[in-house]
Design goal:
Layout (H helix, E strand, L loop, with lengths): L5 H13 L19 H13 L19 H17 L18
Helix pairs in contact: 1-2
């Protein structure tokens, strides 16, 4: 809806998509954006995603931690690959090499 506050929407999108490494049943899977606010919203979302810290969940500075196991990591990566063929990702972050991380 074009009357939504973009800053609040971006904050809520990030929380839904990436808290708990996106492993909640209620995690955001698909985002639909009204055409007349798409450019601004996606630019803001990309900037906010690029500011995310991926790493050790015990550190207060971490926004996105690892997924629960190797199977979850493989499944999420496969899903992202398939969706990436349909439409390019908004942003592609680097995940730590060690551990069960999947970059947002």
């Amino acid at each position: 809806d074009s009357t939504a506050l973009p800053e609040q929407a971006v904050r809520d999108i990030l929380a839904s998509a990436f808290q708990s490494a996106g492993q909640r049943c209620s995690a955001l899977r698909v985002l639909y954006v009204q055409k007349d606010v798409e450019k601004k919203m996606l630019e803001m979302l990309k900037g906010a995603m690029e500011a995310l810290n991926i790493g050790d969940p015990w550190l207060i500075s971490t926004d996105v931690g690892p997924v629960i196991d190797d199977e979850a990591q493989a499944s999420i990566r496969d899903y992202c690959t398939k969706k990436g063929l349909e439409r390019p990702p908004i942003a592609q972050l680097e995940a730590p090499k060690d551990g069960r991380f999947v970059a947002p």
